[in-house]
From TrEMBL:
GO MF annotations in UniProt: ATP binding; phosphorelay sensor kinase activity
UniProt GO cellular component terms: plasma membrane
Residues of the HAMP domain: 311-363
Domain Histidine kinase: 466-586
Transmembrane segments: 286-313
Coiled coil (UniProt feature): 351-383
PANTHER family: SENSOR HISTIDINE KINASE YPDA
E.C. no: 2.7.13.3
Location of the protein in the cell: Cell membrane
Keywords: ATP-binding, Cell membrane, Coiled coil, Kinase, Membrane, Nucleotide-binding, Phosphoprotein, Transferase, Transmembrane, Transmembrane helix, Two-component regulatory system
Record-given protein name: histidine kinase
Chief location of this protein within or outside the cell: membrane
Enzyme class, spelled out: transferase
Amino acid sequence: MWFKHSLKGKLSLLLIVAIVFPLLGAGVVSYRIASNLTEKIEKQSGMNTLRQLSDKLDFIINDIETMSVFIIGQRNIQSYLGSDRADISLYSQNVAFLLNLASSKPYISNITITSGRGYPALSNTTVLHSGLPRLLEANTADYNPAQKWWTPLYENQTTDDGIKRVFSLVRPIRSTEKFQPLGELAISVDVDEVQEMLQDAAWNANGRLWLVNQEDRIMSSQTGEGLNMPLGQSLQGLGELRGTEGVLNIARGQESNTLLYYTLPSLNWKLVGVIPTRIYTAQNEYVLTLTAVAIGVAALLAGALVLYFTAWVTRPLTKLARKLKDVSPGDPVKQFEVRSTDEIGMVLHSYNQLGERIERLKNQLQLNEAKKKEADIQALQAQIHPHFLYNTLSSIHWIALMNKDRQVAEMVGALGDFLRFSLNDGKEFCSVGQEVAHAQNYVRIMSKRFQDKFDSTFLIDPKIQERTMLKLLLQPLIENSIMHGLKKKQGKGSVFVHAELRGDGLSFVVEDTGVGMDEEKLLHLRSLLLAGEADEQRQSGSSNSGYGLSSVDRRLKLHYGSGAGLHIESQPGGGTRISFTIPVLEG
């Protein structure tokens, strides 16, 4: 493996392992502590909510019981119930009293006093129908007329509120003087008000909350569902709720839940709440994600620091090893800055001395080789000096004229002009007129070589003669038309050269009447030009020759952009048309 061959790799791996594993261990411990703490906080928060809600309900219960004692002790109530006949005046005073008393308590649905002597009942509202009598008959085992009793749920219908679900405190009324039974008092609590209290209790939105009596029947719930039903029907698998408060884990369908309950101090009723475990499980996932991100960032930072410091410590050795491995006689030997006097510093110092010696020897050898090459080049240049070549061609030209051999004279003159323009003192650009003249000289030479094989026509817009363009663009295209189009044709052909100003560009076209190409060969040629491989295949002698066009296409794109490349059109037996457009250059 790579770290077996690298000191830096070994040190980096060992240090990273030594850092990452403790980080992972710390992360696991932190996650477990945080997840347990999250669950504990969620349960504690739920229990606190139940306690606060219990205090509110306990206040209502105590307030109603205190109110009942106050009502029973009222003199007018005692007088109305204890008189020998019904007194309409006392009736009206007591109804007004009950009305004022009930109006100050929004959770009281109605207050009803029943006379033991059959007098009209006293109430703060007109009761059209009451389910209390039937309820008392059905619960004779639990209800003792001589004691107070909190009833299960039942329905009342009044003129003020319509049909209401209520539960009531029922207690006997006795004479304060003789302690004999006078009647019965029932104070009804509006279940909707209790439901509103449950809804406002800030319980978890995904959980549920119930108020159940001593028989575990639902007295009120957040949603108003399941009233007067056993709590076990709403919570499958619910066992006995032992003690005054507690926490249980139960399964509700396929979902796991945490159940919390708390007993009202004034009654043996319980507040029961359910929280889906996925609530704090989701929080645990958030803690896990946060812990993982923190550990990941810490590991990355630690890894980066380890790699940095390891690289910093081993950098001199790494550089030295790389230089010794890749050293080549043709490369300059670089010197190392020695910053220490330890073993590494001594090795670097020795390497620098060796490098200096190698550089001196290499420079001496290169100097000798350069002097030799310079002499060879000067000798070669003396043999093929352009002026010598031009003068020789000029002499041949005049000899041919003196011998009245005009054909040879024209061919030699055209060759001299062709070579003079091709060299052109190394310049890359020329005028359009010079480029056309160079192409015409080439056509003259080729027409002498291939007599009666083709005609040529140059149609050049006079307005563009002095415009500047990249040189040696037309000649290779004309050569392509002659060598691969007209030469292979039976009979005589033609080559046409067009040049004109079109918009903001100079448009050039070289067209022949040669043998052309089929669709497959044309597509292959275009793909070669696109890949820049035509010249390479031509030079290697491939049968799928690129016709020497790639160099022209590459030069056009290099100097004028990708849009200035060659455009080739051809048909079998219909000739070939090659065109390109370049922008107008000033100067």
